[in-house]
Amino acid sequence: MERKKMVKTTLAPQRRSQSRFPAQSRPAAACLLFPFNMTDAAVSFAKDFLAGGVAAARSKTAVAPIERVKLLLQVQHASKQITADKQYKGIIDCVVRIPKEQGVLSFWRGNLANVIRYFPTQALNFAFKDKYKQIFLGGVDKRTQFWRYFAGNLASGGAAGATSLCFVYPLDFARTRLAADVGKAGAEREFRGLGDCLVKIYKSDGIKGLYQGFNVSVHGIIIYRAAYFGIYDTAKGMLPDPKNTHIVISWMIAQTVTAVAGLTSYPFDTVRRRMMMQSGRKGTDIMYTGTLDCWRKIARDEGGKAFFKGAWSNVLRGMGGAFVLVLYDEIKKYT
């Protein structure tokens, strides 16, 4: 009898502890990273974060060489490393000269910072986008209230992008400065890596230096994300069966959206990257006194086309962005 009582007392706590973790239909990744009870909303948020982040990191690495070409064409006029006689004449000239002058692996210069930055950026964008959609689109019928539905998608996409930017801007700044560093090796390089870049700029200009160009970035990211998410979600929502749309159709929609969104916001991106190049500069090395001065000088000295330098590279790079949108939807079908 005593042995039976002992068995009962030892087993009872186990049953009570197990009852605190009821079986739920949760994705394996979410269970692994968040091994505690979560509400349905928390599980959905975790799924969005993981699915968006993984898809973004992979696609961004694939298009890293195109990304660096685009950045060099954008900021070379503001770089003290690239003199007027050594500036790249276009995409082809840039692609040919980079491996000759800096080595093939330099195509991925700044890619580590970009992957680190892009994972939380894209994951937060997708996760917050759905939360903002609940705010802006609650109770809206997409069939009978099309324009309100469209405006809500624009607002949710823009708000998600702006919110995420506040958290990851220093990483985006470092990625730009590392990609713009054209030194071959050692003393020729301005920065040794991600950490060295952040530390040097912080010591030189403080936290303000790491957020150089932030204001115009917010304007640009709202425009870009509003189109990126708003038009895509609206187009998908107009399809008869959005969840079972063929992957080719989804890719075509995503490709069109990323190209239009990228070209629309590209001048803002050019200005913000030029402003990023000002951090750590002193005296005569400073080209622009502020954002408005940057807009004015680019238009006056280089012409309106200068705002779109590297834009075609951006369209090609957008294929990676389109792939992210499609892959995100595909991953969510199995999570």
TrEMBL record:
InterPro entries: ADT_euk_type, MCP, MCP_dom_sf, MCP_transmembrane
Skewed-composition ranges (Polar residues): 11-22
Entry's Gene Ontology molecular function annotations: ATP:ADP antiporter activity
Solcar repeat residues: 43-135, 148-238, 249-334
Region listing for Disordered, in residue ranges: 1-22
Residues annotated as signal peptide: none
Localization (cell): Membrane; Mitochondrion inner membrane
Keywords from the named record: Acetylation, Antiport, Chromosome partition, Membrane, Methylation, Mitochondrion, Mitochondrion inner membrane, Phosphoprotein, Repeat, Transmembrane, Transmembrane helix, Transport
A Pfam family that the UniProt record links to this protein: Mito_carr
TM region positions: 248-268
Function: Catalyzes the exchange of ADP and ATP across the membrane.
UniProt-recorded name of the protein: ADP/ATP translocase
Organism, as annotated: Papio anubis
